[in-house]
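Run Trichome birefringence-like N-terminal domain-containing protein through structure prediction, thanks.
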Amino acid sequence: MPTTFGLLASMAKPKLNSSPLFFASLIFIVISSFIHGVSSQFELDELSWLDEKEDEVAMVQSRHASQRSCDFTSGKWVYDKSYPLYDSSCPYLSSAVTCQKNGRPDSDYEKWRWKPDGCSLPRFDALDFLGRMRRKRIMLVGDSIVRNQWESLVCLVQSVVPTGRKTVTYDGPSMAFHALDFETSIEFSWAPFLVELKKGAGGKRILHLDLIEENAKYWRGVDVLVFDSAHWWTHSDKWSSWDFLMEGNSVMRNLNPMVAYEKGLITWAKWVDLNLDPRKTRVFFRSMSPRHNRENGWKCFNQREPLGFSSHPHVPAQLVVLQGVLRRMRFPVFLQDITKMSSLRRDAHPSVYAKAKGQEEKQHLRDYTSDCSHWCLPGVPDTWNEMLNALL
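Sure, done. The structure for Trichome birefringence-like N-terminal domain-containing protein is below.
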């Protein structure tokens, strides 16, 4: 059967007939060819990612522009009593993020919903998500803040899965939540640099800027990949994450961290370009999660509500480097920019409530470490996952 475009091309050659019967015939032929034409495998694969709610959110945050777009990055936090979407009794939460269980006295930080300017972010529907992700693997790759997001996503879906039909398995640096009836897995793979960090002579930590396969072997065969790598690159002085850097046979100690970060990202980008098929795998790179660590880590302590706006929004150097690398890739990686929206939420970190406190300890909270990097759950990472769900 000739293609639709072939039919149209052949019709264009003779002088057009202006009769109503001719135009009626033309419309019938075009519609019939669309209905009965044979789609290519690429088209079938692309259509498999669509669903009935496509019109609800038409937005792609990437270097590929969308004709109908909604910028999820610009908006405000609005108080919504119908949130959160789960509570801290979710069995998959680590104790460091269960701020309510650890004694945090307020809970309003759980009830703020992100409202983009000029559009809406759909409320997370667990059954709808699992239905669309049936027989698929979703993997989040990165550091402990990515695990923060993984725990959020698992808690968002787990309540609709019967107790005997869900399980968690472990494989090296990876863990996976399985919704058995949907044949869906939501996985986390530990790789804070994406590239390889190895122990060398004398126990020295060597970050290999051009090696990645030891981590990347866990990413093969995954349908949806969400990457993040930012925080570990900026640890300095006694908190530095490596002793030496290597690229090929070159050993470096005092390389600018952002130069090292770019080299590591280029290694990751080359692996994605060479090893993944955009018809089979969707790839997202989540931007840097902001920290509120100024004033010796106490900037987030006792905060009760979001900032209304940021008069001078700070663009992290990591985001600038990441954008440059993504622009040069062949593979269509979608940049999920959560930095600006999250920077307004200094109220949503664990602060001193990363561990449970007794009555005596509560009287001396200033003696404890304040975590202004990770996020209480339920909380801000739930919004990241609502955005991810919309993009999928």
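The radius of gyration is 24 Å.
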